[in-house]
């Protein structure tokens, strides 16, 4: 049953462990967090805070068998790919796009794209994501309806609108599905329209530019976007150097390596999140650090598509703000950022041959405070500190795979799953309680998802039957 919940004035979370992610990186055993009017007002030992808050709060959450963390920040999400899980397995990136993903996305009707967005948000909220960065919506999806749903769902979102004026990918020209093609003026101007309509809405919705990958955008349009983003004080996100073909394109056509190319057209800086960034050199990593450009690391997607492994431990060592993203349904097959933390933690030792290449603490930073910094909202969220907005997640650790609890950070990264999330608070509002979404009807979304996916697959002529070597009877 759907339970309608309005903003709650006072919430008191009586924790077991509180992992604050504050500047001192305090981890508080037997801790508690008090929230008033959407703002964190106290963080400390449970015994010290109980007398003031336990009997005087509107909602008291007993989390003594849990771990309380800041809301997770997913810095690379494709809302329109929620219905495409298992539709593009066993392929490399360009045929994956050309033969499967783009034909499906190019056949969406707005009502199907909205169902896809709802499905993705349901999965993210129930796995502890309170803030995310959408990489690029197009007009055929019905962007306004999606943004309005995001606001009503209670989640925070930076929503990038795709901008393009070419039809290629890297050195392959005219391969973008016709259903996704939009003129440069149309896509650029619609981003500006969305910005003036929604940007800053309740400090939970922001509108970004989402240029397509090099090969689909002219140099002039890249520069126009970067200038406008700086003028509007908003962000830009773009896939870069995901596969070797990306390097081939920028070097052959422009004589520049991918990060050099991005810098040349204005796509570096504190308001830019570059996604994947796998095939880069030491000099390019230094350029990312120097310009304070953030990187979204998506290890499951890179592994599944055999794209390669990003040099995250080296980026962190050189001072790059590295964040964590799940990517989309057909490249990851889930939107669970907690599971993604484990993949990120395991990949760097494999790539470097060094078991100390990355620590669990660094991975948790990537999924929280680093992500907030990349979205330019670390003054609001990303840590549990007095004065910040109350984005909190309670993870239930009273489970066999999370016992004995002797290191909550290690367990979060290496042992936990999104399904261990029990309660989620965004902006002081309880949006998930005891694993039930309180802001929209999850059951209705699940029912509509199957129907919408079936209709989409039939219309696109893709994913009509499972890609399964075994027989179905």
Automatic annotation (TrEMBL):
Keywords: Hydrolase, Metal-binding, Zinc. The keyword Lyase does not apply. It holds the Pfam family Amidohydro_1. One of its GO terms (molecular function) is hydrolase activity, acting on carbon-nitrogen (but not peptide) bonds, in cyclic amidines. Gene3D superfamilies: Metal-dependent hydrolases, Urease, subunit C, domain 1. Signal peptide: none annotated. InterPro entries: Amidohydro-rel, Metal-dep_hydrolase_composite, Metal_Hydrolase, MTA/SAH_deaminase. Residues 67-431 form the Amidohydrolase-related domain. CDD domains: ATZ_TRZ_like. It comes from the Archaea. This is Amidohydrolase.
């Amino acid at each position: 049953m759907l339970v309608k919940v309005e903003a709650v004035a006072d919430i008191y979370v009586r924790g077991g462990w509180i992992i604050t992610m504050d500047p001192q990186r305090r981890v508080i055993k037997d801790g508690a967090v008090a929230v008033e009017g959407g703002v964190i007002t106290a963080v400390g030992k449970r015994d010290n805070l109980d007398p003031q808050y336990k009997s005087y709060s509107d909602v008291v959450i007993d989390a003594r068998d849990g771990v309380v963390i800041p809301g997770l920040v997913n810095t690379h999400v494709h809302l329109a790919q929620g219905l495409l899980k298992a539709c593009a397995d066993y392929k490399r990136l360009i045929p994956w796009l050309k033969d499967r993903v783009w034909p499906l996305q190019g056949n969406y009707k707005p009502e199907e794209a909205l169902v896809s967005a709802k499905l993705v948000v349901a999965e993210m909220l129930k796995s502890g994501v309170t803030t995310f960065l959408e990489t690029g919506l197009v007009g055929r999806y019905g962007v306004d309806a999606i943004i309005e749903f995001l606001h009503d769902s209670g989640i925070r979102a930076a929503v990038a609108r795709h901008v393009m004026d070419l039809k290629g990918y890297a050195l392959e020209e005219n391969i973008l599905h016709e259903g996704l093609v939009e003129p440069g003026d149309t896509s650029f101007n619609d981003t500006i329209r969305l910005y003036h309509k929604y940007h800053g809405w309740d400090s939970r919705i922001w509108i970004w530019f989402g240029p397509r990958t090099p090969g689909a955008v002219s140099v002039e349009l890249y520069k126009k976007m970067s200038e406008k983003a700086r003028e509007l004080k908003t962000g830009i996100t773009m896939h870069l150097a995901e596969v070797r073909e990306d390097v081939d394109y920028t070097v052959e056509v422009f004589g520049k390596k991918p990060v050099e190319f991005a810098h040349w057209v204005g796509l570096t800086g504190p308001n830019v999140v570059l996604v994947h960034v796998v095939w880069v050199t030491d000099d390019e990593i230094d350029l990312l650090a120097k310009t304070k450009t953030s990187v979204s690391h998506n290890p499951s997607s890179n592994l599944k598509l055999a794209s390669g492994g990003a040099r995250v431990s080296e980026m962190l060592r050189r001072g790059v703000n590295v964040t964590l993203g799940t990517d989309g349904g057909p490249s990851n097959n889930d939107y669970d950022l907690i599971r993604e933390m484990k993949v990120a933690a395991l990949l760097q030792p494999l790539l470097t041959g060094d078991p100390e290449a990355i620590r669990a603490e660094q991975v948790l930073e990537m999924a929280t405070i680093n992500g907030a910094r990349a979205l330019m909202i670390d003054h609001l969220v990303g840590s549990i500190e007095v004065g910040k907005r109350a984005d909190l997640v309670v993870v239930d650790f009273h489970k066999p795979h999370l016992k004995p609890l002797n290191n909550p950070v290690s367990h979060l990264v290496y042992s936990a799953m999104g399904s261990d999330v029990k309660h989620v608070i965004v902006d002081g509002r309880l949006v998930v309680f005891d694993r039930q979404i309180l802001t929209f009807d999850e059951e209705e979304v699940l029912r509509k998802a199957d129907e919408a996916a079936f209709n989409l697959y039939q219309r696109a002529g893709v994913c009509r039957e499972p890609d399964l070597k075994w027989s179905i009877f």
